[in-house]
Amino acid sequence: MKRYALNVYGMVQGVGFRYTTYSLASKLNLTGWVKNMLDGSVSIEIQGEENNLKYFIQNLKESNRFAHVEKISSREIDISKGESSFKIKF
After folding, report:
1. Would residue 84 count as lying in a domain?
2. pLDDT for residue 71
């Protein structure tokens, strides 16, 4: 079990990217959240089994045909105990 903080840059707001992220995370039984940021990026915290996390990160760029992901930065962070679902934050 691992948890990552991701920042996604590019044309990722106003194109349904958070909903696509939610769908991909839920399909892989990952927990965490996704949120639009004021600078136009999207912030994600994602937690789960390492293989599912790798698949999620690798497929994030192609998950939404309307988005244009230029860059994804990631870093491992502490696990959040008791989290049971993936949420879209507003």
Report:
1. no
2. 97
